[in-house]
Amino acid sequence: MSAARLDGRRIVVTGAGRGLGAALAAAGPRLDALVNNGAQWLEARDAPYAAAEVVAVVDSAITGTFLLTQALLPLLRHGGPADVLTIGSISALPIPAGAASVPFYAAKHGQLGLVDGLRQQLRGTPVRVIGIHPLELDDTAPGEPAWDASPGRRKGARLTNRDVVEAVLWALTRPAHVTVASLVLDADLGGLQG
Fold it and tell me: What is the model's pTM?
């Protein structure tokens, strides 16, 4: 679909080892886009969380996202259009948390704060800051039958990784004067997680 418009662009995707990020990564003297995709999931439960679990969730969503973005900003500010796109979560929005734990919910709110803060910091520069907030999704991979079947799913079906990848490609391929500041991916459930 929009992949041809990304040809030649240098993109770093965090968390690219599996799930949403099983795609593409490059670096060099310039960088055209950073896709902050790395985060650690922690499901809601009644049992107490270990301190290490909470720290890992917060560090992956907030500390890791910020420090990597900060380190790559000089490459992103090379003079041409560039993007910092962060895949957050609908958990960062004022809706029921669903299956997310309180630490995950709080970490994603902090990550949304980073997106908003970076957007302010980079105003007036050629770097766009984009936030995409999906619902819980089914983990699929390119080449799997579930990946190929994703576009034909019925209204109300859970999102898949492919839905998020297509939203990322769409946002990154908007003309340089258009910023998709925030995009919520819903399964047409009115923002309610089931």
Answer: 0.85
Please tell me the predicted confidence (pLDDT) of residue 85: 97
- One-letter amino acid for residue 186 of the chain: D
**Read out DSSP for 89-126?**
-GGGSSS--TTB-HHHHHHHHHHHHHHHHHHHHTTTSS
Where residue 155 falls (left for φ over 0; alpha for ψ -120 to 50; beta otherwise) is beta
Q: Is 191 left (phi over 0), alpha (psi -120 to 50) or beta?
A: left
Helix (H) and strand (E) counts for the chain? 5, 7
- Name the token pair of 99: 């299956």
In 3D space, the residue among 59, 166, 160 whose CA is nearest the CA of residue 110 turns out to be: 59
Left, alpha or beta for 90 (phi > 0: left; psi -120 to 50: alpha)?
Answer: alpha
Count CB atoms within 10 A of the CB of residue 165: 23
Using DSSP, state whether 82 is helix, strand or coil: strand
Residue range 179-194, pLDDT digits in tens: 999 998 887 765 555 4
Sequence-distant (6+) residues with CB within 8 A of 8 are none
Task: Please measure the distance between the N-terminal and C-terminal CA atoms of the chain and give it in whole angstroms.
Answer: 30
